[in-house]
Amino acid sequence: MRIVVLSGKGGTGKSCIVSSLAVELSKRRKLVLIDADADCPNQYIIFPGKDVKGKKLYVSKTVVVNYRKCNLCRECLRACQFGALEVGNKIKVDELRCEGCGACVLVCPRGALKLVTKLTGGMFIRETKKFPLVYGKLIPGESGSGKIVHELRKEGDETARQREAELVLVDAPAGIGCPVIASVAGCDYAIGVLEPTPAGMKNLERALEMVEYFKIPYCIVMNKVGISRKNEGKAVRKFGGKIVARIPYDEEVPQLLAEGIPPVLGKGKAAQSFRKLAEKVESLVY
Amino acid sequence: MMVGVTGGKGGTGKTVVAVNLAVAIAKTGRKVTYLDCDADCPSAHMVMGAKRKGRIAVKSFVPHFNSSKCKRCGRCVSVCEVKALYQLQGKIPTLLEPICNGCKACVLACPFNAIDEGEKIVGWTYRTEKHGVELFSGELRPSEPLSEKIVDAVKDRARREGRGEVLIVDTSAGAHCQVVRALEGCDRAIAVTEPTLFGLHDLKVISEVLKKLRIEHSVVVNRSTISKRKIKRTVMQIPYDRVMIDCYSDGTPIVSKFPEHPISKEFFKLAERVQTAGI
Description:
Distance between the termini of chain B: 11 Å
Strand content of chain A: 25-35%
CATH superfamily of the largest domain in chain A: P-loop containing nucleotide triphosphate hydrolases
CATH class of the largest domain in chain B: Alpha Beta
Number of strands of chain B: 11
Structural class of chain B: alpha/beta
Number of domains of chain B: 2
Number of strands of chain A: 13
CATH topology of the largest domain in chain B: Rossmann fold
CATH architecture of the largest domain in chain B: 3-Layer(aba) Sandwich
Helix content of chain B: 25-40%
Helix content of chain A: 25-40%
Largest sheet of chain A: 9 strands, mixed
CATH architecture of the largest domain in chain A: 3-Layer(aba) Sandwich
Strand order of the largest sheet of chain B: 3-6-7-2-8-1-9-10-11
Strand content of chain B: 25-35%
Oligomer: heterodimer
CATH superfamily of the largest domain in chain B: P-loop containing nucleotide triphosphate hydrolases
Radius of gyration of chain B: 22 Å
Number of helices of chain A: 10
Structural class of chain A: alpha/beta
Order of helices and strands of chain B: EHEHEHEEHEEHEHEHEEHHH
Largest sheet of chain B: 9 strands, mixed
Radius of gyration of chain A: 22 Å
């Protein structure tokens, strides 16, 4: 069983909910946690432990120019759809724009261009107290975060198989684009985190539209309940029965997170709701 | 002058800071253009309480196979780096449309000229005006992965139609290609963070991106009262205050709704700083 937690908008409480679910569910089930936010991974801050495996990931490609062969015919510039090539007194590749598609290589009449793989980031498996955590780190600014997530997912599945873990929990990054699609694809169930603000509602709706595209069943958890009565009413009218749990806004949560503690370990009303949420999720997916 | 507002972590208040800064600058009489480059989750219009208009579709190339010319050789499938094409033996290749990034390598590789130009809509751009700020906004179509294409389209449109002297660029969360694309060309940047371990970790990541791009940045600390941590390069602190949540939920920037509020005054100071000291 693979469950992904996403929200579209950032800062709605995904990582907070995922860390709490992982703590609670690992009491009863073997699980593997994947932090699919390779841009800004946060789960490894909450869950200390020893990294037992680290691997460099060469998953994106770029182009190198052989200047002895290049005669500046500019065919490559015309072929590039991403504006990644510039020409002055020689052809220059803008690595931040290059998609590694190889169109330029195909048109070069002198064979002066070559597609090469490049270091995109790293992948780590950490042994935490209760479960293994698979996380990645994108080299800041690199493209290819979707490809890293793809690798994290593969590694997560493999780790789950080796350890006979029945549950893989995936913490998706913010947004609905490439790395989020890579987090969602192939999951069995999705949990949408709803922040009762206009942007929280609209962007969860967009995220769920993508989830529906992949035909994945989902439920919604309303987080920070209490910050806006008006918007909570709107959210209920909009998402109705899909909302299966409500986590009250609790000052304790940001304070615990500020210190890197999973909020389920707190004493307040939110902590209590996180424990109930874990039970609810189990009843829905098992 | 173009100022990027970013931060790494999601939900730190990038858009709220960017909108209030834009409105505060507009109140000083300067023309401000706002570029909402968070194509995945555009929200500046909601924070401003504006209706977006002037929708234009952003399109990307997709291959259309000409069945009479295609000899089923599979060249196109083998050159497709993103694996958007697959082929059953002896059949015309099939396109997995959302995966296609429009690179046209298939067209270039086809020995029989059997691939025609098709297109797909990957998202839209919009424009509107509110609180004296001209807003250009992008929106990725759900299930499409080409966020950076929308960012480029927003910037192109603002370049063509915008009249602002000061440009405010609001980026998405994260530190990958679409954030980089949004920040390209910015003269300065403001990184919005919160004083949590997550916020600080992600601030470090985005600082590295900004360093690579050679863009100097200052830091705005939101919800500064939840921790006593001191953060370098801080130029403004926003205390945790119920009024910010209310303004956010209502869709009115605090500098418009309560211009006398201490937080608004801080925004006016920040606006002044951006225009004189370059932040």
